[in-house]
Structure formats: C-alpha cells, structure tokens
Input
Amino acid sequence: MSLLRDIVKKRKDASKRSDAASVKSTGARSVVASLYSLAIGGQRVKKRRRPDFSTLGAPEWYSEDGNPRLPSDMPGTTTRTDLPAYTIAHGTVLALRIEDKNHWLSLVLYSHAKESSLAAMYHNAAKICGEVRVCLEKTKNISSIEVWMSAVAPAGELISLTATVWNRSMGDPRHPQGAKVAFKDKFPMGTFVFPFELPPLPKFVPVAHPDSSDNRKGFVPLPRSFWKDKVYGDAFYQTTSIDSDNYWFLHQCGVGIRRDSVAGIDEDMDMILQYIPLAPPLPRKSVPFPFLASREDWPFKRETLGGWVLTPFGGRGRIGLEMVEVEGLLGIQDPSIVTAGHKLEFVVILWSKSADALQLLGQPAAINVSYCMADFMPSSEALRPREQSRTTRKIEQMCRGRIWSTDTGRPSEGAPELALVSPEHILQKMSASRATPLKPPAPSRMQSTWSADDQDEDDGKEVEDIVQGDLEDSSEHFVRLEGEIVVPPCRPVSYRYTEIGREYTLELQFAHHLYSHISPTGPGLLAEVPVWYVADRPLRGGPATLNDDPTYLESLPLNGATIPIPSDAIRWPKVIGKHAVSSRGGLAKLGQSFLGLVPPKSQQHADP
Output
C-alpha cells in the first residue's frame, strides 16, 4: 500500500521540478472540476481545441416511406435560369473500320461552350440537343439508332438519358412523314439527319446513406464534370486511365448503332461533354463583427452569430519550461459562399493568460494564412461528416493571404512582410530557466518512515499552494487581428457525393520557434473554417427559342469533326428523349477527333 501511495503522492514543491512543470499551470479550478466530474460521472470541463469538422453540403436524410423533398439552394446563392440560345457546335465521328472507306456516322452537340473549348458545355437544367448524321455509300443492316447521355462516378451511374432517333417501327428512313409501317429492309444509302433533344439535366441526384444498415436516402447537387492530370477544354481530363483515380465525374453523350442480323456487330461511340452548375453568390451587406463581452461568451462549437460564422479553436504548449494555453475565435461573414476573385475577409481573436504566448503567436509574421482545397479519400465521411473527417482528407494549399493587427491597421499595398520577432525578455527568461540546476531526485518513500497524518497535512498544503498560485495569476490577455485572402479559380466547385467530395477551407496556422506545441496533435495552433465555392460565367446569345430553329443551329461555328450535309439530305423531325429505364449495352468508344475531314468553316456548305 505504501508503494501505491508513493506513486500517487506528489512532492509539495512539484512545480519546481522540470518533469512536472505543467502541474501548477494547469489551474486549480480546472483540475478540481475535472476530478469532480470523474468522481460523480458528470461532464468534463469543455475546452476549445480542434476546429469543428465541416458539414457544408451534407445531405438531409429521409426514410424510404417518408416524403422526401428536394433541398433548396445553398444559402447565399441563386440558380441561373436565364440560359440563352446555344452558341457553338461540337462534332465527332465514328472511327473507321477496315471495310469503311469514309466516315459514315457523326454526332453533333450544340452548347454554351467557349470557342476555345474542345468539349460541349452545359449548365443548370440544360437540355442537351444535337443531331446524328448518317451518310451511307451502301446499304447497312441497322435496326435502330439510339442516343445516350450518362453521368458516371466511381460509385456508379448518376443519371442516364436516352432517345431513339430511328428504329424499324418508325418506318422507312427515306420518308420521315410517311406511314409508321415496320421497315424490314436494310438501311438505305444517302445522307440522313436525326435531330434530338434530351430531358433537362437534373439539379439534384439521390444518394444512399453510407451505413449499410441505414436505408434512408438523401439528395445532393449533380456534381460537375471533373477529371485530373490534364486540362481538356475547360475541365480536367485524365489521359491514362480514368478508373485509376477515385476523383472524377464523367459526363458523356454517345450514339449506339444496333443490328439485328446474326453476324451484325453493334457499334457505339461517345463524346465527352462538360457540366458546370452555375450558382452566382447573392449580394451581401458588410456587417460589423459581433460584440463579445468576455471569453465566457465565446461558443464551444462553430455557430453563426450576428451575421458571422464563428469557429473556436485552441491548444496548449510550452515556452521554455512554462506551460501556456491559447484559445481563439476565427470569424468570417455568413453565408460562407465564395467564388473566383472574391476577397474573403476574416477576424481572429486570441486569448491567453500568458502575455508571452500572445506576443509570440499573436504577431502577423507567426501566422500562415492559406486557402486550401481538400479531397475526401474514399470514405463514408463525405456524406456523413464527423470527427474522423479530418483524417480522411487530402489537403493542398492553393494560395496565401495576409493578416495584420487591428491596432496597427491594414498595411498598404506592396508593403514588405513583417519579420518574425523574438522578444528579448522571453529569451532572457528561457536562458535563466535553462541555467537553473535541477534538484537531485528525492529518496524513495520506501526508504523513509511514512505517516498518514503527515501525508494528509502535506496534501492540504499542496492544494492550498496551487489554489493560491492560480488566484495570483488570474489576468487575461487578448489580441485581435484582421486579414483577407483573394480566392483563386477552383475546379471543380464544392460538392459531396458517395465516398468522395471536394471542399475548400480557410486555414490559419500559428507557429513560433520559441513555442513548442503539445496539444492538439499538429505542427502548431490551427484554425480552420470551411467555405462553399460556386461558379458563374457570362453567357451571351439570343433567346432560348432559337434552339428549335434548324437554320440557326446549322449556322453555328463548329469545333471538331463531322459529316458534311448536302442539299438533298433527308432531315427527320426532332425526337424528344426520356430517362432510361434499362442499361445501354455495348462498349462505347470515344469518337474520332478532326483528322483530314472537311474543315469546320466549310463543312456547312460542302457537298460529298
């Protein structure tokens, strides 16, 4: 029993030992409250440590037998509904086979893409429209011509739209307005044009709860097209293997040729396209930072107060042999919506009982302000945010911002950065503590006579010393800083989907070579707040009704390759597509790019 008491018992002058320097600085009130909560089973004293994990964009879950409703727009944004007429065409052709002398199948898509883009581009609730061109120099055994549009992610297919522009039940291809009598012959020679229009792209797509035991469903915005490694048009495109990367969304539109003969081989080709949701941020009025009378008014979790999103953070470490604790509050204006070129302003308030800690960590040179992107590794935390979300992200810094003390004011443009300062009195204090010799180790209690009465008396004196020391050091110190960072262009926009997602954050790291960080784990004090990145772009064009005018569509500039349309080409009426209820079938290949065909500028008026 005496050995157990020897281990538990502390020396009366424990605060002077180098291996127990943190005992006194802990604070008697916190120690007593924590021990009391352990004894009676209550809650521990709350601490402001790690910033909260992000829940922006997380879906709301509904039971299968409930009445799910589509979510509203992200607060602070609006959806573009003023889409004009399409302004450009993109074409592709089916690669030649051995028996083919010329290209005979082409797909043309009309969109809002830029002239420099290599892929068609669509936005909110757009109707993908185009035409299939068939030019045969000899008859072919074709039973149907189908158009398919799909959006695919690592977790599976998001959407699937289809339109059958021709099949045998629709009659003779040479007579679009003829009787709908089943056509039994081979597809005739000639040039045929089959216009089509697919249903509007959905704004939201359903997702399942990541827990296999939970059958609830939710909705998230349809993610934009996203590849990696190489720029393809205005999107990222991976040249090696899309399946080798877990961060991609592939939107594509293709044509399927179906044959009904015994030796017939179905042919499919696809054309990559881009989908970018446009959600411009709403105008926001600037509001002053909320007044907080004392640190007790600070929140323990991220919350919105007075038009500001406040994120508490904190940590503890050492300055020499002194244990210090620092807490802070990072605030940005609500809602947390940013876009390219947006100047994100923020406010930071630091608190500590150690004036030395704030002199070191509260100077602008000790704070690294960065705008970061974070990809969720394949995990359930993308749709179900929780504490583990911090460990399932791959974070990359995109740009840096600047910060200044509120007392000194905003620095002028082009002003040099301030150098990191190490106050002289702190250096002297640390040198003095290192020069103080350590006391020899105390003899073991097993080698001395122990008295229960003496032990109780010693414990009482020790607690009295700690409480007295804590009362003497009750002063609090505050530092306020302000800063800003210009948001760079980001691809893709913020999104969440099954097991993957992309979010953007404002991060502040506090570090100084005289401060040794202990808790929470990390290189230094960290403050982090998530923001939701949205995109917008100017669109120019006539009224959307022009999309129904074939003459207008044929006059649009063309990028890519296609089959020229002669004057005697047979044009079928536009076919309106639908949502697919069955799989496409077949193995689609990417259409061939512009190689040796009629140049785009002369295609519209060229004859075969």
